[in-house]
Amino acid sequence: MTDDEFYAFMDSTFAELEQKQVALSESYGLGNGAGRWWFDQTTSKLQFFDAADRLEAEADVINIGSYSAKANSWKWAWCNETVLPALRERAAKLKELETLTGIALFGLDHVFEIGDEAMAWELTAMAVHFLGALGCYKAPSSVENGPVTFLAIMAIEQTKP
């Protein structure tokens, strides 16, 4: 890809992600902050609970990567030792973005500096598009000022009538 083609790809995938996020919010209430969430790495399932702690929706996900605001850094899930091997393997497809775009950062197997959270969302948008995902979930850290994890939602099912 030329630089112009890459920027057009980035812009179009970001616009696509915004639309997907609106659809997830409208259909499943994601992002309304009413309840809690839980991610089980062993099953690749992301669960959303309502304010009464009833399971509302369950999603099959692929871990994309994590962003640290403290260090303005990114790490792909496919090379992150804290991610279980089966999940790293599912995320490994994202390395193909390096060949597709010609941009080396898609193949970096270590933490690297990025501009800010906006760039983390741009990387996520390209990953969501490439994976054919329905959207993503930005999972906050359980540690204060810890990294957030971006999860591509591959399928989702409402569990409440």
Concise account of the structure shown:
Helix content is 34%, strand content 28%. The chain has 161 residues and is α+β, with helices and mostly antiparallel strands. The protein is globular and about 50 Å long.
Task: List the topology elements.
Elements lengths: L2 H26 L8 E4 L4 E5 L5 E14 L4 E4 L8 H7 L4 H6 L10 E2 L3 H15 L3 E5 L8 E11 L3
Antiparallel strand pairs: 1-2, 2-3, 3-4, 3-7, 4-5, 6-7
Helix pairs in contact: 1-4
Report on the structure:
- The protein is an alpha+beta fold and about 160 residues long.
- The chain has helices at about 5-30, 85-90, 95-100, 115-130; strands at about 35-40, 45-50, 55-70, 75, 110-115, 135-140, 150-160.
- Strands 1, 2, 3, 4, 5, 6 and 7 form a seven-stranded antiparallel β-sheet that branches.
- Strand 2 (about 45-50) and strand 3 form a beta hairpin.
- Helix 1 crosses helix 4 (about 115-130).
- InterPro entries: DUF6882.
- It holds the Pfam family DUF6882.
